[in-house]
Amino acid sequence: MPAIPLPFVIALLLLLLTAVISYRQEANLKPKVIFLLSCTCLVVITGLRWIQTIAAIHWLQPIAAACIPPATWYCFALMQQTRLSLWHLSGPLLTLLLLLFRSFWHVPLDILLFGLYTGYGFAVLRILFRNELTLQRVRFSDLDHVNKAAGFAGTLLVFSALIDGLIALDLVGSGGRHTMVILTTAQLLLLPLLSIAVITSSHAVVIDSGEDLAEPGQSKEPDSQENQNIATLIDHLIRQQQLFLDPDLTLNRLARKAGIPARQISAAMNAVHGRNISQLINEYRIEWAKRLLTTTQDPITQIYLASGFQTKSNFNREFSRITNTTPSDYRRSVST
């Protein structure tokens, strides 16, 4: 029975994943498909280099590799904005130009790839150190999950840059004797992991119909009274319309309902309450869950879903943070 090289097995799995996502017509389909197809092309080209000596394959591999960082960024950028600047195509295009004019101007492609993977890796990692404005299109209940996925994806991109540096050292030290082994092993390990991080995080993005509210231009900082007015309005809106029960609630959706730009809402809630908006939304949900725990005999699984949470782990973590007890212990304590 003929053996199938491992790169083609992984490429087949990535294609199956692309087909499943396309068949389900999931939200944010375009960036997922672009990313998965970029990974598939790179894995296939890597596999072909093992069994073929076609010169075109040596050209295609660095171009395909240069597409991975912007494709990864595209998936995470959708959490804040709806369009990707065409400037993000400059990396693959510059790689192509360097290949075309290699005989006249020899610049090591490893340096370019190192810069691309490092730059985009740290750009994704920035999500961990910014407030919820960076993720204003993400469900409040999924913010922690997306932060972890961004940290994982950013770390993988930076690690890929280190691999490119290791390949450059191998080219200098041993004439590239170990380059193919290093490159293939790294790609076969990193691309599936990167795919998992990107695809799982993109499920948390909610695409609403309609345009986002325009952010105001440069203006003076709102005073404490203005922040208090915004916080009071948001609190009234959330309670009156029970927006916290919507599991798909995002900062963008809340801003549109309130008619106030997301940046002003975030700043006001932080200034008045000393906590970010996602923590406050979870507090509304826990307050509702406590009422259900004391007035009904519904199972906890049904209660956390009815309170706007999507996972039991997130519900238990937030319940414990706010009440310093578990849902089961809370129900027992109020019933005795």
Automatic annotation (TrEMBL):
<feature type="domain" description="HTH araC/xylS-type">
    <location>
        <begin position="228"/>
        <end position="333"/>
    </location>
</feature>
<keyword id="KW-0472">Membrane</keyword>
<feature type="transmembrane region" description="Helical">
    <location>
        <begin position="32"/>
        <end position="51"/>
    </location>
</feature>
<dbReference type="GO" id="GO:0003700">
    <property type="term" value="F:DNA-binding transcription factor activity"/>
</dbReference>
<feature type="transmembrane region" description="Helical">
    <location>
        <begin position="111"/>
        <end position="129"/>
    </location>
</feature>
<keyword id="KW-1133">Transmembrane helix</keyword>
<feature type="transmembrane region" description="Helical">
    <location>
        <begin position="149"/>
        <end position="169"/>
    </location>
</feature>
<protein>
    <submittedName>
        <fullName>AraC-type DNA-binding domain-containing protein</fullName>
    </submittedName>
</protein>
<dbReference type="GO" id="GO:0043565">
    <property type="term" value="F:sequence-specific DNA binding"/>
</dbReference>
<feature type="transmembrane region" description="Helical">
    <location>
        <begin position="181"/>
        <end position="199"/>
    </location>
</feature>
<feature type="transmembrane region" description="Helical">
    <location>
        <begin position="86"/>
        <end position="105"/>
    </location>
</feature>
<dbReference type="InterPro" id="IPR018060">
    <property type="entry name" value="HTH_AraC"/>
</dbReference>
<dbReference type="Pfam" id="PF12833">
    <property type="entry name" value="HTH_18"/>
</dbReference>
<keyword id="KW-0805">Transcription regulation</keyword>
<keyword id="KW-0238">DNA-binding</keyword>
<dbReference type="InterPro" id="IPR009057">
    <property type="entry name" value="Homeodomain-like_sf"/>
</dbReference>
<keyword id="KW-0812">Transmembrane</keyword>
<keyword id="KW-0804">Transcription</keyword>
